[in-house]
Specification:
By secondary structure, the chain is α+β, with helices and mostly antiparallel strands. It has three domains: 20-243, no CATH class; 313-351, no CATH class; 356-420, no CATH class. It is built from 14 helices and 14 strands. A four-stranded mixed β-sheet has the order 2-1-4-3, covered by helices on one side. The two termini are 33 Å apart.
Length: 420
């Protein structure tokens, strides 16, 4: 299923590598850009506030007022967020309080932040001393990024476990030469130490500045701090974080002819708490495996799906170019994808031909009446007019309106087993 859907997306990426990034949406919160060589200050030139509700209403003008800064934050944020919004992929495990993924960023939820946050649902704000301890461990783990690459091999059920030093070097250079060379550079080691020192030594100043800032510019969601580094460094750090975590688990990784095959993590789970998708009646437990590059394409495709929304049916023509135009043209065969509240795929259909056109009159045989102004309970009622139905979308809309009080969203079919 996923392989079929990712194929046209992969072909579209050849023509436009920025398909996902161009449509990437920042989450609500305060975004601050800091220079490690300058004093802590939140000024007009280095912050934006994102409020997606106001943006959808056309009220929020951040993207218009600060287009270059907004674009910079959008791109660097894309390279710095946790994989698939899965907190189990955090660097900050098991605490899951720090939600960034590299040495140039520090993300956390506003409500969890000391001094600034407020206890919600009985969950207290993290203490400052504890958070500082987590920050120190966070940077220490970044220094040990190489170990995460070795887990790809060592955690697999199909390998001999821990490698000797010479074998380890051969493995890393065979599969991750560029990333390992970057991890070992003196420049990266030095910058991690400098950025760690900057965040820890200026933590109180950062928090105090944000608290003072909130009095004039209230915001909700996340606090996201970015250090001013080049995009290329953000890209490399993204690779260092993403590649070792891109598979669902490393237990089923295979190493064949210089290629790594593993179980993708999108729309599938096989961890010990939810082993439902493992194949228990075959010699191989993994439902299927793909190469690292194909997993990356699947990741990008699901990021594109998440941008489309929730509780939706997405119709994709087989040759759709993902260029912002309508994804389905009438009369063409297409893929029908039904998304749930997490923008994951609930159902998937291959529609090889377009359905016949509708052409009938929906009669108001019962002479049912509706109010002229549906929002005004005191407005006059008039009979619903007969309607000429030519489109499945209109039919579904009327079906939802008349029989389900406009509560039927997405699509008609919903399989549900009801126990007697």
């Amino acid at each position: 299923m996923i392989k079929d859907m990712v194929k046209p997306f992969k072909e579209a990426l050849v023509d436009d590598k920025n398909i996902v990034l161009d449509n990437y949406r920042l989450k609500d919160g305060l975004y601050i850009k800091l220079d490690v060589n300058k004093p802590i200050e939140i000024c007009e030139e280095n912050f934006i506030i994102v409020n997606n509700k106001e943006k959808d209403k056309g009220i929020d003008g951040t993207e218009i007022k600060k287009p270059e800064l907004y674009k910079w934050f959008r791109e660097m944020d894309y390279y710095s967020v946790i994989l698939n919004e899965d907190t189990n992929k955090c660097i900050d495990l098991p605490a899951k309080k720090i939600l960034s993924t590299n040495q140039m960023t520090f993300f956390m939820k506003k409500d969890k932040c000391p001094v600034i946050g407020k206890a919600t649902n009985g969950k207290p704000v993290i203490k400052k001393e504890k958070l500082l301890e987590l920050i120190e461990k966070y940077f220490d783990k970044l220094m040990l990024s190489e170990n995460k690459f070795m887990e790809i091999y060592e955690n697999s059920k199909y390998t001999k476990g821990t490698l000797k030093n010479a074998e380890k070097e051969e493995f890393l250079k065979t599969y991750f030469k560029e990333q390992i060379e970057y991890i070992r550079t003196e420049q990266r080691i030095k910058s991690i130490e400098e950025n760690k020192r900057f965040i820890l030594e200026n933590f109180d100043g950062i928090i105090d500045s944000i608290k003072e800032f909130m009095e004039r510019y209230p915001f909700n969601g996340y606090i996201k701090i970015f250090l001013d580094y080049k995009k290329e460094m953000y890209e490399m750090e993204s690779q260092v974080y993403t590649i070792p975590r891109i598979f669902n688990v490393n237990d089923y990784n295979l190493f064949i002819d210089g290629k790594i095959l593993g179980l993708p993590s999108n729309n599938i789970t096989t961890n010990t708490k939810k082993p439902y998708l493992l194949l228990k009646t075959m010699q191989t437990n993994a439902p299927y495996r793909v190469k690292v590059g194909e997993v990356q394409n699947a990741k990008n495709f699901f990021e594109w799906l998440a941008i489309q929304g929730k509780f939706k049916e997405i119709k994709l023509d087989y040759n759709y170019k993902f260029n912002g135009t309508d994804s389905h043209k009438n009369g063409k065969s297409y893929l029908s994808i039904h998304l749930n509240k997490k923008s994951e795929i609930d159902e998937f259909d291959n529609i090889p031909f377009s359905g016949s056109k509708l052409n009938f009159i929906l009669y108001n045989a019962l002479n049912i009446e509706e109010r002229i102004d549906k929002k005004d309970k005191n407005s006059l009622k008039v009979p619903i007019k007969n309607e000429h139905i030519k489109d499945y979308g209109i039919l579904q809309q009327r079906f939802s309106e008349y029989f389900f009080n406009n509560k039927l969203f997405g699509y008609f079919v919903k399989r549900q087993i009801i126990a007697n």
